[in-house]
Automatic annotation (TrEMBL):
This is Peptidase. Pfam families: Zn_peptidase_2 (PF04298). The chain crosses the membrane at residues 119-140, 146-168, 195-222. InterPro entries: Zn_peptidase_2. Keywords: Membrane, Transmembrane, Transmembrane helix.
Length: 228
């Protein structure tokens, strides 16, 4: 009933997202079995790069799970999953350096990261309301609800798009820092690119899917206004 031409692109983005998730897990598993020449663990790499950039106050902690790694800007903590924290593989050091990249972004007030932090409280609120407004507007054929849903949903889409340069920049910093500090050698960069590249693709797929969904609802809204 609600099938729309944009659904083809949305399904394609969903397929890309699923494939990217598969690649993330596959590449992490593959490169987790390849040790770095430096033999440093993810925790040691994170601590070393943080200290080299004057971030002595930022802690490095181990957390349970796999691929649960993240940087907490409120607590100023780099949290690494146990396989990354204790591992000394190409996958481990790649993920650890990437998360430290976010800590350095925070220190330097990297524009896209600052903007994302400002957007987060608003997105946290609107993302829970927008789907109900959009679905309700479609079911009840109420353009006003769809229009309001579009406005709220646009904040979530903007957040997804802002996230892209944040993640790509963190990965770029990670690769440069690991090479500069001798953590990886040139022949190990291929593995780093595979691990971080697959992770970046998940963000691209998510942003595309959200953007296509927004365009779909905008087109429905415009069409509804035209028919009135």
């Amino acid at each position: 009933m609600f099938f729309h031409p944009m659904d083809f692109l949305i399904f394609a983005a969903l397929g890309l997202s699923i494939w990217a998730q598969f690649k993330v897990k596959g590449n992490f598993k593959k490169w987790s079995e390849v040790a770095t020449s430096s033999q440093k663990t993810g925790a040691e790499v994170a601590r070393h790069i943080l200290d080299q950039n004057g971030l002595y106050q930022v802690k490095v902690e181990a957390v349970r799970g796999t691929l649960t790694d993240h940087y907490d800007p409120v607590s100023r903590v780099v949290r690494l999953s146990e396989p990354v924290y204790f591992g000394h593989s190409i996958a481990s050091v790649s993920v650890a350096a990437h998360e430290v990249g976010h800590a350095i972004q925070h220190q330097q007030s990297y524009g896209a990261l600052v903007l994302r932090h400002k957007f987060f409280p608003l997105v946290n609120l609107t993302s829970g309301i927008a789907p109900f407004l959009l679905i309700g507007g479609l079911l009840l054929n109420q353009l006003n609800l769809i229009g309001l849903g579009i406005i709220l949903f646009s904040f979530a889409v903007a957040f997804q798009l802002i996230t892209l340069p944040v993640e790509f920049n963190a990965s770029s910093r990670a690769k440069k820092l690991m090479v500069a500090e001798g953590i990886i050698r040139n022949n190990e960069e291929h593995g780093v690119n595979k691990v971080l590249g697959a992770a970046a693709l998940t963000y691209v797929a998510g942003a595309l899917m959200a953007l296509f969904e927004l365009i779909k609802f905008v087109m429905i809204f415009i069409q509804g206004n035209t028919e009135e």
